Amino acid sequence: MDSFDSLDFFTDDSVANDPYPYYEHLRARCPVQPTGHHEVVAVTGYAEAAQIYRDNASFSACNVVAGPFLRFPVELEGDDVSEVIEKNRGFIPQNDHIVTMDPPLHTRERGLLMGLMTPKRLKENESFIWRLADRQLDEFIDDGECEFVSAYAQPYSMLVIADLLGVPEADHRRFRDGFGMAANKIAQNLSADSPSGQAPAPEEMNSLSWLYDWFAGYVEERRVAPRDDVLTQLAQAKYPDGSTPEVMAVAHQAAILFASGGETTARLLSTALVYLAEYPGLQDRLRAEPGLVPNFVEECLRIESPIKTDFRLVKRSTRLAEVDLAAGTPVAMLLGAANRDPKQFESPNEFRADRPNSREHLAFGRGIHSCPGGPLARSEGRISIERILARTRDIRLSEAHHGPAADRHFEYEPTWLLRALHGLHIEFTPAAG
């Protein structure tokens, strides 16, 4: 289709609301397909995306944040640009975060996070998660309606990660007021080059910098007066060689955990409510079969992946799905497409709460860059759905905001990075008692 061939996925807002036809257009040609824009090669196949996640020798994570707009001060020439990438990391947006790092630097920094999201820690945090779910619902449950993203999904997910890390409850309000869509802000800053033809400076694209000083203060406090929380574990963690990280290095890790954990869960919860509202019979089934809720959460992650695009840069010329990829090529793993690959998932565009392989999705990545907050997001999703179903009946979409069933309309954030519902207006009947 000519319109798809000319469409720029990374700057054209028209594809934000429904990218799936575009994904199918690319996949029909090849699961590894040049887009014709920004020299990007798109990956829509599940097996191919999984292979990239496993091959850290050939693919660098340096452009995860900047995507197609990453610019180096020198040309990326030759069959191996690994050395050029390492020498110019100062030009990489958020180069101080593990999301953009490659081994061995990534291995060292990831070591700080190992053991923090343990089953024991998550279990200890669950009592707060249960209480918070009801506390958040209390704010609007008697109204019989709400805008779910702002009333529940965003504040709930932010406060859960704040509690897990050990952010004092007295500071929760300032975090709630200051916390915005970090990834979307980056995408907006990167939507086009500056008039001079140069990409924005890395420091202009770091939407987490406002968090650094706050978390640095917490880390300094924990090193003097330890507490029983994750921030203390981070503050006291050592690198594998036994050395102590700089305070700001630890603050950076805490900031990325805080921001990414909140965003992913908020998007997951919004998707879950859409499908609950669209399929009333599913509400009754989950109430009757609560053991199905965890798989329902996995299917939500599969069918609407919160992270829409995950980028890599080819370090060494390689071959993927019989397609040659030259060193220096930006590769976009379209997770929303990979998680709907018919080779991996039967009837992939159908929502099936009992799909047997839903958990095979790539929503949390794979390998060394898999999301460390995945287990927490799953717990938040399960607990939220159980409490929402227990305290409501007849959840439905507001036709005044989203139209009748035959003509639904939703608005998504205009970003290539997140699958982010801009607003979700629901109505419901509070459960008796």
How would you describe the overall organization of this protein?
Mean pLDDT is 88; it is low at 180-200. This protein has 17 helices and ten strands. The chain is of the alpha+beta class. It has a single domain, classed as Cytochrome P450 (Cytochrome p450, Orthogonal Bundle). The strands form three sheets. A five-stranded mixed beta sheet has the order 1-2-8-5-3, with helices on both faces. It has a three-stranded antiparallel beta sheet with strand order 4-10-9.
Order of helices and strands: HHEEHEHHHEHHHHHHHHEEEEHHEHE
Span between N and C termini? 55 Å
By CATH, the architecture is named Orthogonal Bundle
Structural class: alpha+beta
Mean pLDDT: 88
Q: How would the global form be characterised?
A: globular
Give the uncertain stretches in residue-range form: 180-200
- Name the beta content range: 5-15%
| CATH fold field value | Cytochrome p450
Which CATH first-tier class would you pick? Mainly Alpha
CATH homologous superfamily caption: Cytochrome P450
Determine the fraction of residues in helical runs and give it as a percent range. Answer: 40-55%
Structure, briefly:
With 433 residues, the protein is an alpha+beta fold. It is 45% helix and 9% strand.
Short descriptors:
3-stranded antiparallel beta sheet, 10 strands, globular, single chain, 433 residues, Cytochrome p450, alpha+beta, 17 helices
List the helices and strands and how they pair.
Blueprint: H1 2-6, H2 20-29, E1 32-34, E2 41-43, H3 46-54, E3 59-60, H4 82-87, H5 105-113, H6 119-138, E4 145-147, H7 148-165, H8 172-178, H9 182-189, H10 209-224, H11 230-236, H12 247-278, H13 280-288, H14 293-303, E5 309-314, E6 318-320, E7 323-325, E8 330-334, H15 335-338, H16 374-391, E9 392-397, H17 399-402, E10 425-430
Parallel strand pairs: 2-8
Antiparallel strand pairs: 1-2, 3-5, 4-10, 5-8, 6-7, 9-10
Helix pairs in contact: 6-7, 6-16, 7-12, 10-11, 10-12, 12-13, 12-14, 12-16, 14-16
